[in-house]
């Protein structure tokens, strides 16, 4: 990592970007939200600038979740998600480790915690990990996930969404967030998306269509840039 572009400070999030947690009807946000306000302390230069070359510990290369082998493709709408990872000053974060996980086309996760009565897809696990190139670019080939209900007494539905974890340029600058699809009627009813108070910040969680001519035949394209911190930060999503 070039020390000249490695930030030695992080600006705090402006008001309205951080989600208002805990979120009623989403149990994890109660168990994961500290009861006391965080104690703020300045990070040391060592903490914010390293370790770099995170991919040495986190092997990358799984960028195609939809094709698991010759003739073996996941069910669902084939999509391509591409974008850039940017720092708070708009500079590309190269070498960032980008992880993605998601439900299958029926809205079910390939995970023992998800025992909902919806079909599993034998050709879809639903997670991938790659690292950004010199321009901070990443890209995944996958399928559009289905919506799924949140199992609470007054159940509600999560819209189709993709989970992201971005590590870069150092381990302290990790962002865990979610990406949504434009125009989905469930977006405005989603308690996780709507937990972000600022409307412009919520918009930064919604992908944009890529013109079909820019994507390979058969893949519906979505562009989604992710900004780590700063005024234009992509909000955290639990
Ligand atoms: Fe999810």
From TrEMBL:
Residues forming the Intradiol ring-cleavage dioxygenases domain are 81-109
What Gene3D superfamilies would the database entry show? Aromatic compound dioxygenase
Keyword tags: Dioxygenase, Oxidoreductase
Tell me the GO molecular function terms: ferric iron binding; oxidoreductase activity, acting on single donors with incorporation of molecular oxygen, incorporation of two atoms of oxygen
* Superkingdom field: Bacteria
Q: Which family does it belong to?
A: Belongs to the intradiol ring-cleavage dioxygenase family.
The protein in question is named: Protocatechuate 3,4-dioxygenase subunit beta
């Amino acid at each position: 990592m070039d020390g000249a572009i490695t930030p030695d400070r992080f600006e705090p999030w402006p008001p309205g970007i951080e989600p208002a947690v805990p979120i009623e009807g989403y149990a994890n946000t109660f168990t994961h939200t500290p009861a006391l306000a965080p104690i703020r302390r300045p990070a040391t230069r060592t903490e914010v600038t390293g370790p770099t070359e995170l991919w040495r510990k986190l092997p990358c290369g799984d960028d195609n979740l939809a094709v698991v082998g010759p003739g073996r493709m996941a069910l669902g709408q084939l999509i391509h998600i591409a974008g850039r990872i940017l720092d708070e000053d708009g500079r590309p974060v190269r070498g960032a480790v980008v992880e993605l996980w998601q439900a299958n086309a029926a809205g079910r996760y390939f995970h023992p915690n998800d025992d909902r009565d919806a079909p599993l897809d034998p050709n879809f696990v639903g997670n991938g990990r790659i690292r950004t190139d010199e321009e901070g670019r990443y890209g995944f080939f996958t399928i559009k996930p289905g919506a799924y209900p949140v199992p609470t007494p007054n159940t509600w539905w999560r819209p189709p969404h993709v989970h992201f974890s971005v590590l870069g340029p150092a381990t302290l600058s990790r962002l865990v967030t979610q990406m949504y699809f434009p125009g989905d009627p469930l977006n405005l009813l989603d308690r996780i998306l709507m937990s972000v108070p600022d409307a412009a910040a919520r918009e930064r969680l919604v992908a944009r269509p890529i013109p079909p001519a820019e994507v390979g035949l058969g893949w519906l394209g979505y562009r989604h840039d992710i900004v780590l911190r700063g005024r234009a930060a992509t909000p955290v999503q639990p």
